[in-house]
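We now fix the convention by which a protein and its fold are recorded. These numbers are not coordinates but entries in a learned vocabulary of local backbone shapes. A record is reproduced here so that you can trace the correspondence yourselves:
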Amino acid sequence: MDSVVARMKHRDTGDLFPGRNIFRGEDTSTVLMLMIEKALICYGSRYGTTTEVVQEMVKTAEGLGTKTEAVFLKKDRPPTNLHEYDLVIIGSGIAAGQWTKEPLDFIKNNLDLLSKTRVALFVVCGDAGSPEKCGQAQVAYLDKIVEKHPGFSPISTALIGGVFDFKKYNFGVRALVKKIVKAQLPPGEEVPEKLDFRDWDKIRDWIRQLLQ
């Protein structure tokens, strides 16, 4: 499959998400861009929030004409032919400050191939909904993942707001998370049963900018 090659001015789209865009290339003013015809999204999700985000990513990408495959790594075996994809997007929900295990294993086990592939990285986490915590979340959940894997150089990273759906948590987790959330609310305000910090327009915009 031939790819359309073009030259594109370097641009920073960090206003979409606190995540940073990093374009490879010695000349930082321009970057060699390939038309994205086939994309892969490999991800981990505990309570379904990240799955819903990925479903919207796939819908957006398919609407742009990019054939897109989503792989829930806890249940599905990822493809081994990563070189056949123009873009690989890897993501995870964050709980208790941790990625899900499967996406990290996917990066570790495919590091050589991923180092030769156009890759983007995202996380879905509650801290993305807090301006005061975005910077720390960027470092802890995205920058450090990149630093731990030499040769792994995502062209873009994104922090995506998460969901607190307390009915899905066991008693211990529910009590702990409610305590944390309540501490951030004005005095006397009760914690609702569900808080959703996802910005669907920004999620769609991120995918569009990755693919166009």
User: Anything to note?
Assistant: DSSP finds six helices and nine strands in the chain. The beta strands are 5-9, 30-34, 38-44, 67-72, 87-93, 119-125, 156-161, 163-165, 194-196. Helices lie at 49-63, 101-109, 111-114, 134-147, 171-183, 200-211. The chain has two domains: 5-162+198-211, 164-196.
